[in-house]
């Protein structure tokens, strides 16, 4: 381990600098060293969170010594890392580096073991996984040698009841600096919508099957359905934004037929995506008779695909869509030359003929292109894309100022089109914990603070005269225009057409 310790010591400052440059986030580091039960006061050494330079100094004092038999007190070290340092960030990662397995015949891989029955203090993997889950900490094991294979294989079996995402593994390839950067950025990407992370969920068994838009044996037969549109609408004396936040969006129902691929064509962190061909029936019709859409279904079993949960997604998207429209108006008002921001309309799909538990999905227009993430809901900023598309960070800032600090649209992601940014799956923070927008991705004031901690106002922010939180009058009324008559339209063909440029 001495060579490994020296490698980390020599590169950790550069790693921190590169991470900050790549993500815009400030990283803090703590250090926990574990040995074995026979090593007395050196069994565990704990240094609390600090900066990378101080961590490098701590590593100079660490000696790879101790231990009696082959296995080590891995579980004891992990408990110290979970419970004995001052976690405060929303994004929490333990990088576990070790070249020896945990005690116990289930883990030791046949090594001579003074404690074949496991940890003598009764620490089990279940205790560790429950504590990781409770504290929302992701554990990443960095494989150094084959001696830990049996332990990791067993832990992967034991983590199954806790779901995916809580315990990851990366293999060390020899370049410590590149390895650490890859490991941290990849793990951070898994928490880019932190709050959606729910390790207790079990994935559905699905086979991804590529498909084209030619209807063939990979598609289901045509089915009758109802499409429910969620939108901001004229709430009388209430401003539409306040109305949609407090009372929910208006609902418009359309009858249609839909044909969907049998298997999903793509998968994301939270949902499967199916191709769909949609045709309205009844009084409403489209100029182009059939539209290409995407039907999304939760990849997890349970209540994730209940009507209530899917309505939340449509509700959040409706708010983002409304605020994007107001932002585009401001760009025109200030004569700012930029691509427009368009949020894909997300609608609730009901297929009555399907069995209970499989009747509800979300439906949105098909967007062709490469998906990119520009920021997330806990302070992450894609610095490479920010340099090319700063207007998207301005949009998040704008939503906060426009609502006088009431809401903030984050988790900006989607496709860069010819004339617009076509976005989907936002997260929205609210300033008040009063039941408004109850969703796991709503981090409230912590999420708002996380954005401003990494945001640097750009030229677009300055042109729009956007204020920082300390410059705003929290007691001022939210002065936002009501809908004009021309704006009182449902998500219709025009909304779908603007997603196809």
UniProtKB/TrEMBL annotation:
SMART domains: Alpha_kinase. The keyword Kinase applies. The keyword NADP does not apply. GO terms for molecular function: ATP binding; protein serine/threonine kinase activity. Transmembrane segments: none annotated. It holds the Pfam family Alpha_kinase. Keywords: Kinase, Serine/threonine-protein kinase, Transferase. It comes from the Eukaryota. This is Alpha-type protein kinase domain-containing protein. Residues 205-469 form the Alpha-type protein kinase domain.
């Amino acid at each position: 381990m001495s060579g490994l310790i020296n490698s980390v010591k020599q590169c950790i400052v550069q790693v921190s600098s590169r991470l900050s440059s790549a993500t815009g986030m400030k990283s803090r580091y703590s250090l926990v060293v574990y040995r074995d039960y026979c090593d007395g006061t050196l069994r565990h050494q704990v240094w609390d969170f600090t900066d990378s330079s101080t961590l490098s100094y701590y590593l100079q004092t660490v000696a790879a010594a101790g231990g009696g038999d082959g296995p080590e007190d891995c579980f004891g070290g992990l408990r110290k890392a979970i419970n004995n340092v001052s976690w405060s960030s929303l994004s929490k990662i333990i990088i576990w580096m070790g070249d020896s397995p945990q005690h116990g015949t289930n883990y030791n891989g046949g090594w001579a073991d003074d404690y074949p029955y496991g940890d003598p203090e009764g620490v089990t993997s279940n205790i560790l996984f429950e504590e990781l889950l409770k504290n929302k900490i992701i554990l990443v094991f960095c494989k150094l040698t084959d001696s830990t294979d049996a332990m990791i294989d067993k832990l992967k079996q034991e983590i199954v009841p806790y779901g995916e995402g809580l315990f990851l593994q990366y293999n060390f390839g020899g370049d410590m600096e590149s390895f650490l950067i890859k490991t941290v950025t990849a793990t951070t990407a898994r928490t880019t919508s932190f709050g959606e992370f729910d390790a207790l969920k079990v994935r559905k068994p699905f086979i991804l099957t590529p498909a084209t838009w030619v209807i063939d044996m990979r598609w289901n037969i045509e089915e009758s359905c109802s499409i429910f549109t969620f939108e901001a609408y004229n709430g009388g004396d209430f401003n539409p934004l306040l109305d949609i936040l407090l009372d929910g969006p208006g609902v418009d129902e359309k009858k249609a037929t839909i044909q969907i691929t049998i298997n999903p064509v793509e998968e994301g962190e939270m949902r499967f995506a199916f191709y769909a061909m949609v045709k309205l029936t009844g009084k409403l019709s489209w100029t182009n008779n059939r539209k290409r859409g995407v039907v999304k279904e939760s990849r997890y079993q349970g209540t994730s695909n209940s009507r209530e949960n899917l309505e939340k997604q449509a509700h959040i998207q409706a708010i983002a869509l409304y605020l994007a429209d107001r932002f585009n108006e401001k760009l025109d008002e200030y004569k700012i030359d930029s691509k427009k921001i368009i949020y894909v309309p997300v609608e609730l799909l009901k297929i009555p003929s399907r069995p209970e538990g499989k009747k509800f999905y979300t439906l949105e227009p098909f967007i062709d292109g490469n998906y990119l993430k520009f920021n997330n809901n806990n302070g992450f900023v894609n610095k490479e894309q920010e340099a090319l598309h700063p207007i998207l960070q301005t949009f998040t800032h704008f939503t906060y100022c426009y609502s006088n600090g009431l809401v903030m649209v984050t988790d900006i992601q989607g496709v860069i089109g010819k004339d617009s940014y076509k976005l989907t799956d936002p997260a929205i923070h609210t300033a008040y914990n009063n039941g408004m927008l109850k969703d796991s991705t709503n981090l409230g004031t912590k999420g708002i603070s996380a954005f401003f901690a990494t945001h640097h106002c750009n030229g677009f922010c300055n042109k729009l005269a956007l204020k920082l939180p300390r410059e705003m009058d929290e007691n001022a009324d939210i002065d936002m225009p009501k809908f004009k008559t021309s704006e009182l339209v449902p998500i219709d063909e025009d909304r779908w057409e603007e997603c196809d440029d």
